[in-house]
Amino acid sequence: MTQIYLSKNEISASQMMKAVNNQFGGNLRPRRMY
């Protein structure tokens, strides 16, 4: 279950990064979020 939980966290993190990139409109691309 730990591996599934980690994979879910990675997916949610990628979705959040996509949402942030969409909000900034591509002007600011924070690649180092961690």
Helix fraction? 55-70%
By oligomeric state, this entry counts as single chain
Average pLDDT works out at 70
Radius of gyration computed on alpha carbons:
12 Å
What class, by secondary structure content? Answer: mainly alpha
Report the uncertain regions.
Answer: none
Strand content: under 5%
Total strand count, please?
0
Largest sheet: none
Shape: elongated
Discrete helix count: 1
- First CA to last CA: what distance? 23 Å
Secondary-structure element string: H
Organism: Strongyloides venezuelensis
Protein name: HTH_48 domain-containing protein
Which key phrases capture this entry?
single chain, 34 residues, mainly alpha, 68% helix, elongated
Walk me through this protein's architecture:
- It comes from Strongyloides venezuelensis.
- This is HTH_48 domain-containing protein.
- The chain is mainly α.
- Helices cover 68% and strands 0% of the residues.
- The protein has one helix spanning 2-24.
- It is elongated and about 35 Å long.
- The two termini are 23 Å apart.
